[in-house]
Design a protein that fits this description.
This protein is mostly helical and about 180 residues long. The chain is elongated. The protein starts with a helix and ends in a 13-residue tail after the last helix.
Length: about 180
């Protein structure tokens, strides 16, 4: 499962992003054709959605930036240097930077959407842009989690190689 996630979110990230974003935008566009779309997604509901999505994007952005700061500020130990020497290490900070850019774009689009998409009639084109931004941000956040998981799996495997086997028994003669 770990290898599949790495292949999808890291090795073939562009295709995964295009597929997921295209699928979600397409589903949204199909939903706009429903007869009750204007009444279901009225201005109050859109405002609540934009507020909730911007809050979620802002919170995730904070977590991603905090994790990136921790990765950058890690003290230089043998284990950390070994991880950073791994040929795939660049994927971890790269994935976090991509996720932070996408989350920032989603946050801005959703905040601006509060003002721009507040009329009685939904502005479908803007809403599609918001769906694209949010879905891209979520795919990239998932990719950053997968990248960290991949490098931690390498670290755990390397650590197991360094530990001697624990086969010694306690010699307790009893009472």
């Amino acid at each position: 499962m770990r290898k599949l996630a790495g292949n999808l979110f890291l090795d073939h990230r562009v295709w995964t992003e295009v597929l997921v974003v295209g699928l979600l935008a397409g589903v949204f566009l199909l939903a706009t054709g429903a007869g009750n779309f204007d009444t279901t997604l009225n201005s109050g509901m859109r405002a609540n959605l934009y507020i909730a999505l911007s809050a979620a994007a802002g919170s995730l952005l904070g977590f991603v930036l905090a994790a990136l700061a921790v990765l950058v500020a890690l003290p230089s130990t043998g284990r950390i240097e070994q991880l950073q020497a791994h040929p795939q290490w660049h994927r971890v900070p790269g994935a976090y930077f991509r996720a932070s850019r996408a989350l920032l774009a989603a946050l801005i689009i959703c905040l601006v959407g509060l003002a721009l998409d507040s009329g009685d009639k939904p502005w479908v084109e803007y809403e599609v842009a918001a769906v694209v931004a949010i879905s891209l941000a979520l795919v990239r956040v998932a990719a950053s989690v997968v990248a960290l998981d991949q490098i931690l799996a390498v670290a755990q495997a390397d650590q197991r190689k360094l530990k001697p086997p624990t086969t010694s028994r306690i010699d307790d003669p009893g009472p």
